[in-house]
Design a protein that fits this description.
Layout: H1 7-11, H2 21-26, H3 37-40, E1 57-59, E2 64-65, E3 68-69, E4 73-75, H4 76-89, H5 95-100, H6 105-119
Helix pairs in contact: 4-6
Bound molecules: zinc ion (2 copies).
Length: 122
Amino acid sequence: MTHATARGAAAAEQAPLILPPHILAALTLPALDALTPDQAAGRVCVWEGEPLTLASSIGLGEPVTHGDRWFPQGCHRCVQLAVLAAVKTHPAGCRQCAADETQCGTRRDLHALALEMRRGAW
Ligand SMILES: [Zn+2]
Ligand SMILES: [Zn+2]
């Protein structure tokens, strides 16, 4: 295993472990008020507080709550559970899904991500 020096060539195989905004918006994060400083800063898993390594952590964006920016990260297992939960809960709050769920890109991407994570691609 080497770190890629040519960014372009390796991009397809080494997707950064950061979720796109429309996926992040569909995930339910714990309430900031209930977190430890380490969880809010992304030093441990935002859901269950497990230690994170570079290989196991997945960035969850930089939400702003009560004017404070925080930096949640999750371990693979917890993110996978959150994605699976979002697959179930997303359609209820989505106007596109209400109109025609086959046309909803968020729903499609959540399903694809859940499958990828189950295969261990993440
Ligand atoms: Zn976790
Ligand atoms: Zn939808």
